[in-house]
Amino acid sequence: MQKHCVIVLGMHRSGTSSITRAILDLGFDLLSETLPSHPTDNPNGYWESKDLVHANNRILTRAQSHWKDINPLPNTDSISQAVVEYQSEIDRLIQSALGRSNQIVIKDPRICRLLPFMLPIINKRFDNLAVITIIRQAEPVFNSLNMRSKDPTTTDGSIIDRNHAYALWLRYNLDAEINSQGLNRLKINHKDWCNQPTIISETIQKYLASIFSSVDFSKNSRLKLKVFSKKNMVSNKAPIKCNQDTLRLVDLAYQLLLKNDSFSSTLSICSAAAISIPDLAQTTFDKPPVSMTSRLLLKHISGRVPGFSANTLKKYRKNTAIVYISNMVTTPCHIYRVKNPVDSLNRDRHSAVWMTSKIALANTELLINSKLVIIHRSQWTEEIQQIINFCKTNKIRVAFDIDDIIFEPSYIEKGYLASIKALPVAMQNLREVKITEFRKTLLATDFCITSTPAIERHIHNMGKAAICIPNGFSAENLLVSEHWREQRKMICGANRIGYASGSNTHAADFDQVAVPLAKFLCQNPDWTLTIVGKLDLSPYSTLFNTNQVELRNKVAHVNLAYELARFDINIIPLEFNPFCDAKSPLKFYEAALCGVPTIATKNELYTHLFENEKNGLLAKTPEDWIIKLTRLAKESILRELLAANARKYCTALFSAKRQSKQLLSLIDG
User: Are the beta carbons of 248 and 166 closer than 8 angstroms?
Assistant: First the structure.
């Protein structure tokens, strides 16, 4: 006789219990005795095997996780023994259950995350497998989890932070989507299940009959279906206090997850969500609280995933003051110049939104009522041309936002862009074409928004209007930096000089300080050089003692503060040329937020920022670098003073809130 299995997937508080009960009514059985019902939380029963829940909790614990954890599970190599033990336990449960019935239903929301570990055993023990996924919107899931906090007997299972609930909702639903890809599955909208339980139960029966052809469900049905009433399914209506872009994201994810081909539709969300906060390699300090990491995760994903659900499209159509167009969603400049100001504007209750040029052209009604459209760092394309033409036709002001002088072709020939000058001639020519396309976009807009005074002046000299609005840090950035700043106080004697390289494009900058750094390290063997990100050190193989060099991988921006907090001295070496003179001081203010003092190249920007060297030290020559490094290395009190002054200075000057005020002046003036 064939053995059949149904797996029910879904986030906690999404209706998995009532779906499982419906399947039990069709003649299926649980793996073992069910968890007892709860008079207020689940009066009609949880309908999940008590032994399975215990097994799932054990493997999560072994993986240093738990059911409320928003981070991805570690790869199987790191918990291989735990997986072997888990699979043996699941196998014993299944074999025991098959001794009683050949039709088993397996349900526990944790399976959304643990399915890859369970599937090998299920495939071995069953002839046929069906998967049913129920999807409920994030807000009512949060409300239901929050309601548990009202009852002392369920408070351990509650989540009272909306960001935490939303982040967990994404994690469970995205994991269920990824892990069930390729399996025969049926998706159910929770709203439909509540409003049309009879129709949906018939749909379930037809679906199972199509997979388990040997089963006559009309004969096997034992119980009359009992569906939760709407009163039980709906909880309190707490006011929504969440980042506007987060609401856009979860609405979009909800709509995409309901699609039959949702894996391809949600691929960008799944990719963005494949991140741990902190990073797996960041283990020295205590982790931030989940309320903070949830905000960081939601910020990270919503900053990388464009698009709107039909629901949010309606909201943004009504009135959006500022619209950002950005196609560089995976780059740091998108965070500093687009995501941070949009979030800050929304936090101050000013409507702003970002989208790609493709989405903008497909939804021009989002532009029509805006007061300002800002095109961020985009080359001239047909889409950009259409957007600019649309704005001019409808008398909408359009600005070009730029944070580097990447619109001046002559800079390549002059050698100011060292990373490009080092390329083969053919590739240099391609880059020059791109730079020309940036310039074309700049010239086609009404005015420019720049990140530094040097870029502003350069554009003015081209005969174009420009205004400087510096890069800024977000509220989330400030929170996590403060956490790591407090943590670093507990670590003594690290003695690290840190350079946040980011990429090999900064090789020419590092070359300015390589020799004095090597001399300093030779004279101070108790100090090390920490490099975060990609940097080719092969040219310096004989210069540095490898025992004094620590290489750290590049991390997502939400995890950068941890790396900076590990520094005792932050260095910002720069080439002496107009391109580097126009760079943003973000490496200064992000280190300052973490309580780390900076030594920077003495150019126009840092001479202005470090006036009288109250909040940072300046170095122009190799001798300067050695003197300043030695001074800071020996004087810990000076390091603390500079760091404190820098932090106070930067929190006032570079906040995203200040950015939003400057942006509002562009539409209010």
Answer: no
